[in-house]
Amino acid sequence: MTDFSHLDDKHQPRMVDINHKPATLRFAHARARVWLGEELIDKISQRELHTAKGAVFQTAIIAGTMAAKRTHELIPFCHQLLLEDCQITIEAASQGEIHIHTKVKLKANTGAEMEAMTAASVAALTVYDMCKSANKGIAIKEIVLLEKSGGKSHYIRIEGQ
């Protein structure tokens, strides 16, 4: 059986003690793939998509950034981190999709994967919320960690895994 860091020896949930870990530069990059459909993608490619609720991508970037900074309030046992950088980009991809990329950096004694993935999740949900009146079939297809560095382990996702 794999050891889970958030379970104690009695298999009860716990926060991981990170006091013994050195503070190092940490980086995480996550991506959300959202299918909007060709009609909405065409509107996006012409200009920033605006709805009655406002500018879709700009609002999603703000929501994702706010979520990254508040991850510890949303995910049990996540440590409160002082992010030093949070960058979110949204681009039209192919076949009716957009890709939301989130990159976070900080110097700390624990990683920032959850912050990057929370940012991608909330940005994707914001796009869904703002565009659902135009297409009820919008689908958040994937939220993945693409890369992490700093600390003991480094990770780069190989596409197709």
In terms of structural class, how would the helical and strand content be classed?
alpha+beta
Order of helices and strands: EHEEHHEEHEE
Annotation field: number of helices: 4
- Please state the average pLDDT score: 89
| Helical amount | 25-40%
Largest sheet: 5 strands, antiparallel
Note the gap between the termini: 22 Å
* Count of individual domains: 1
- CATH-derived architecture: 2-Layer Sandwich
Rg: 17 Å
Task: Give unreliable regions as ranges.
Answer: none
> What is the CATH superfamily label?
Molybdopterin cofactor biosynthesis C (MoaC) domain
Can you list the strand order of the major beta sheet? 4-5-1-6-7
What is the CATH C level class, in words? Answer: Alpha Beta
Number of strands: 7
Shape: elongated
CATH domain fold name: Alpha-Beta Plaits
Strand content: 25-35%
Features:
alpha+beta; Alpha-Beta Plaits; 5-stranded antiparallel β-sheet; two-stranded antiparallel sheet; 7 strands; 30% strand; elongated
Account of the protein in words:
The protein is α+β, with helices and mostly antiparallel strands and 161 residues long. The protein has a single domain, classed as 2-Layer Sandwich (Alpha-Beta Plaits). Helix content is 29%, strand content 30%. The protein has helices spanning 38-46, 56-69, 71-74, 113-131; strands at 24-35, 50-51, 54-55, 85-92, 97-108, 139-149, 155-156. The strands form two sheets. The chain has a five-stranded antiparallel β-sheet. Strands 2-3 form a two-stranded antiparallel ribbon. The protein is elongated and about 50 Å long. The two termini are 22 Å apart. The relative contact order is 0.26. The mean pLDDT is 89.
